[in-house]
User: Which sequence fits this backbone?
């Protein structure tokens, strides 16, 4: 599949998906959201891909926000549909992907850009990164999950302040808040992120997918995370990865997981 707004590279079990609209600071428009959905779906379906890294092209921005020109004249119904379709097609899709997704935040991550980064399973930022949800300065609120995921990550009070002030925080403050897991130099960002991806790849992809499902359940309305953990734990016992992992442990050797 060919893409116009993103780059899709595969490297030793890692898919690197780069939002590539540098003239627009990688802003998300409808075409880019669709391409990201397709690329993520393709990567998740490929058995050879064990980890997905999301990043932005250039040195200024991960994603500087949504493309406001696309929806400036929308009606109430169109606005609701924009949020619903965007969440389903990209943001919730990323959060529930069975393949681990790491956001390598290489600059501005604002509005929809921060919402995309928060949809990933965790985040690593370069020292020049700036993050925020400035939507209220435009007379609207975050619509791609920002009002829900930001409080889960940084706490209700900090999320309220960030959203109400429409302000930005830098990478080190994001680390302090728990919004990102690590901060590194821009030059080292991708190498550092790939090293973490390689650590993930040593483990059972089947078990990791089960862990993602169980963890997400704890944040879903009407779901019982503990019950889901019990279910996913039990399912692991029926996998070839469990057989290989336990046998390798007993034989004191490195496991060679088949991924099934």
Assistant:
């Amino acid at each position: 599949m060919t893409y116009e707004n993103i780059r899709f590279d595969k490297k030793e079990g890692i898919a690197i998906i780069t939002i590539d609209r540098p003239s627009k600071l990688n802003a998300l428009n409808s075409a880019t959201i669709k391409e990201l959905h397709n690329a993520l779906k393709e990567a998740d379906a490929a058995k050879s891909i064990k980890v997905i890294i999301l990043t932005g092209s250039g040195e200024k921005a991960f994603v500087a926000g949504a493309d406001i020109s696309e929806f400036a004249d929308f009606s109430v119904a169109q606005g609701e549909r924009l949020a619903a379709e965007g969440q389903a097609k990209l943001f919730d899709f990323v959060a529930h992907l069975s393949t681990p997704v790491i956001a390598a935040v290489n600059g501005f991550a604002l509005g929809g850009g921060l919402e995309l980064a928060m949809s990933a399973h965790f985040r690593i930022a370069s020292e020049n990164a700036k993050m925020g949800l400035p939507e209220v300065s435009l007379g609207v609120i975050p619509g791609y999950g920002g009002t829900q995921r930001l409080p889960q990550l940084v706490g209700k009070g900090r999320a309220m302040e960030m959203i109400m002030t429409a302000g930005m925080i830098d990478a080190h403050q994001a680390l302090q808040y728990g919004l990102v897991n690590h901060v590194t130099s821009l030059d080292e960002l991708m190498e550092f992120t790939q090293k973490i991806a390689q650590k993930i790849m040593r483990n059972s992809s089947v078990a990791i997918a089960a862990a993602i499902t169980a963890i997400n359940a704890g944040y879903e309305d009407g779901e019982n995370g503990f019950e889901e953990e019990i279910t996913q734990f039990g399912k692991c016992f029926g996998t070839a990865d469990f057989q290989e992992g336990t046998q390798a442990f007993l034989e004191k050797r490195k496991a060679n997981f088949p991924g099934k």
